[in-house]
Specification:
Layout lengths: L1 H10 L9 E4 L1 H7 L1 H38 L5 H26 L4 H27 L4 E4 L15 H10 L2
Parallel strand pairs: 1-2
Length: 168
Amino acid sequence: MTIICLVLLLSGSDSFAQTKIRYVNSQRILSEYPEALEIQKKLDEIRTGYETEYNNMLQRYEALVKDIENQSLLLSPEKKAEKEKEAQDLGTQIEQYRYTKLGPQGELYKKNLEMTQPLYDKIDQIIKQIGEVEDYDYIFDVVQGVVLYGKPAYDITNRVIEELNKIK
């Protein structure tokens, strides 16, 4: 909102005519830049592995609970209590697994940060470099909703992708 107010304030002054503004579409950069696609593919594979293991654990738990229900009349009270304890322990393990792997601060979250932060830094560096070389005053990201209108001629997303692809 403050950026919109700043743009509106500047639009009334003569200096705004000299202001060079461009924008990028960060979502498009992430969906077209091969390195970003590769990172997303690796993260999807990691997530799938965690989810598969989680689902396998759930199936084991459900099978154990069903087994206890089916054999309930045949089991001695001690054996039944032992199996119920086993099911309870497995349920606890499942919740711990879900939290440590898929939770808000879990391994998937940490892997995501570890893998994407260098990419975001690289994209920011390229945008800053283009801004300095082309002497732009502002470069906005349309995905964040800061640009209410932008002429396609001012979209430098292709340029950012080209510069990123030059880096190997």
